[in-house]
UniProtKB/TrEMBL annotation:
UniProt cross-references to InterPro entries, sorted A to Z: TPR-like_helical_dom_sf, TPR_rpt
Record lineage: Bacteria, Pseudomonadati, Pseudomonadota, Gammaproteobacteria, Thiotrichales
UniProt name for this protein: Uncharacterized protein
Cytoplasm in keyword set: no
SUPFAM superfamilies: TPR-like
Source species of the chain: Leucothrix arctica
PROSITE patterns given in the database record: TPR (PS50005)
Alphabetical UniProt keywords: TPR repeat
């Protein structure tokens, strides 16, 4: 495609084109060639040929070599041709148009673009003709047709056309009680949802894909869809709504005796309480999940739960217990050959050593994690590990290396469409810039991160980014603007119940008040932060408040805050 564009335009022009502009150029040129090929055909015949091209492309090509009878039987049921000889002639034409013996357009990204555009401007939209083409393509090859629709939904996230295609086939299979097709379409939808989630398309999933799946009579798939509603709402910061969905899914799984689904849902419920800073309830649900996984022999799930128990212990500053859980998880991951899980666990172990200040050991675990993730092609995990390697380099004062790792991470996240990861990396790049006193560039990256978080509805990330923006204005001496951003951050964190975030923001508000000579208000803010941090055992905030107590000459570190509160 690129070679074709360069042939007719300068390389400098093409370099600045968007993907849509490049695809439009290719489609325009192809259509001129097609028009020449089809010049001898009537308008009705052209419409039939385009319809056949659509069916061949949707179904992954006409397999005339191995399944000729099935292909002709399916196509003869359509209104494409009046006779078999006419159909044979049309098949030869689409081979010429596509340049492919199977009559299917390639590559996939161009084929998807053609069909999405075709459904809009050539057929006048989602017509009866296009609907029949979808059904015929599915009859020829259900697996290839469903895979094409899934790819189109993920590659063109701004379009809902592919979703409408899927829903048509899904509704038809449901109405006709075609259980095999319904199962395949349901599986395809969950795969699509997984990919769309990675791209940050949470609202598209919640508004369109999941409501259809939640109406299924198959209770197991219904519970899975409701569980997914919980996950996405949790990512969006809607923790109360998420908890309601999880509890509904859990009830269904219990009713079905579906232990695996129940343990997974209990794990998800635990993370709601972790986000609220209620670590005791978090561990209660994780222990319930672990007991079920051990009962049914779900080693993979057991390893994941142990990882979550470790991150909870880590948040409380209990590094020995966290490390113990991670080592247990690692043994399971290695025994079961779970390379992906091993990469995650190595990454988490590194964070224990980082928290202890043992950067050399931390980087060793991160490099091991990176090797595994690159080996298995885990691009998302690779981006995360590079991010963590950057934080180690930054902690050592090696900002150049930190930025190198962060730029590598950013490229990966942009390539795979990981919006959430991209926003985190932009935040981390801003911190590296701030450490070099380049506050203008740091602010630019934070604003980019904030824009992404607003786009995907990431309230947790937005609260943290507003906090980080405030620190740019604070260091510049613009306390009024800094306080404005902190108050915005505080409002979000109170709304979503982000107790850990509230600790950090309240401490920072106290700093602004102190610098504004509002010592009484500052003490009050820091004492409030202490109460939250003590309740949730937030190690990072308690450590900061210990240092602050020493600077303020409060006796015995954290006991000084207790004495202040009791005065």
């Amino acid at each position: 495609m690129v070679a074709s564009a360069i042939k007719h335009h300068s390389i400098h022009q093409v370099r600045n084109w968007t993907q849509a502009e490049l695809l439009k150029h290719v489609l325009d040129r192809e259509e001129k060639r097609w028009q020449a090929t089809l010049s001898q055909y009537s308008e009705n015949e052209k419409a039939s040929i385009y319809k056949l091209l659509t069916i061949a492309t949707l179904s992954g090509g006409l397999d005339l070599e191995h399944d000729e009878n099935h292909v002709y039987d399916a196509l003869n049921e359509t209104d494409i041709a009046n006779s078999e000889s006419e159909l044979e002639r049309y098949i030869e034409v689409i081979k010429q148009l596509s340049g492919n013996p199977s009559g299917s357009l390639q590559p996939d990204i161009f084929a998807e673009y053609f069909l999405l555009q075709d459904s809009q401007y050539r057929t006048g939209g989602f017509t009866r003709s296009l609907k029949r083409s979808l059904v015929t393509a599915q009859e020829l090859s259900p697996q290839d047709t469903h895979a094409f629709i899934s790819r189109a939904a993920v590659d063109y996230t701004s379009e809902l056309t592919a979703f409408k295609w899927w829903k048509l086939l899904f509704t038809k299979a449901n109405t006709e009680e075609s259980n095999e097709l319904l199962e395949e379409l349901t599986a395809s939808a969950f795969n699509t949802i997984s990919q769309l989630s990675l791209h940050g398309e949470r609202h598209t999933i919640l508004d369109h894909w999941l409501p259809t799946l939640c109406a299924l009579e198959d209770l197991k798939s219904k519970a899975r869809a409701i569980n997914y509603q919980g996950l996405l709402n949790s990512h969006l910061g809607n923790k109360t709504i998420a908890l309601e969905h999880y509890q509904t899914a859990d009830e269904i799984y219990k009713k079905l005796g579906e232990k695996s689904g129940e343990s997974s849902t209990l794990n998800n419920i635990s993370q709601i309480f972790k986000a609220r800073g209620d670590y005791e309830t978090t561990l209660k649900y994780l222990q319930q999940s672990l007991a079920i996984q051990q009962e049914i022999g779900d080693k993979s799930g057991e390893g994941t739960t142990l990882n979550n128990m470790a991150t909870t212990a880590h948040a409380r500053g209990d590094y020995e217990i966290a490390l113990k859980y991670l080592q247990q998880s690692m043994a399971i991951k290695q025994a079961t050959g779970d390379k992906s899980g091993e990469g995650v666990t190595l990454n988490n172990i590194s964070q224990i050593f980082k928290a202890r200040g043992d950067f050399e050991t931390a980087i060793k675990y991160l490099q091991h994690s990176l090797t595994i993730r690159q080996e298995i092609g885990d691009r998302s995990g690779e981006g995360t590990t590079l991010n963590n390697m950057a934080t180690i380099a930054q902690a050592r004062g090696d900002y150049e290396t930190a930025l190198k790792y962060l730029q590598q991470s950013l490229v990966i996240q942009q390539e795979i469409g990981d919006k959430s990861g991209e926003s985190i990396t932009l935040n981390n790049i801003s911190l590296a810039c701030s450490a070099r006193d380049d506050y203008k560039t740091a602010l630019k990256y934070l604003q980019q991160s904030l824009a992404i978080q607003q786009e995907i509805g990431d309230k947790y990330g937005k609260g943290a980014t507003l906090n980080n923006i405030s620190q740019i204005y604070r260091v510049r001496g613009n306390y009024e603007t800094a306080l404005k951003y902190l108050q915005q951050s505080l409002a979000i964190q109170q709304e979503i119940g982000d107790a850990a975030g509230l600790c950090v923001t309240t401490i920072n508000i106290g700093h602004i008040q102190w610098e504004n000579s509002q010592q009484k208000e500052a003490y009050k803010s820091w004492a409030e932060a202490y109460q939250i941090a003590k309740k949730i055992e937030h190690a990072q905030s308690l450590e900061a408040l210990t240092g602050l107590a020493e600077q303020l000459d409060l006796p015995n570190g954290l006991e000084g805050w207790e004495m202040y509160l009791n005065d």
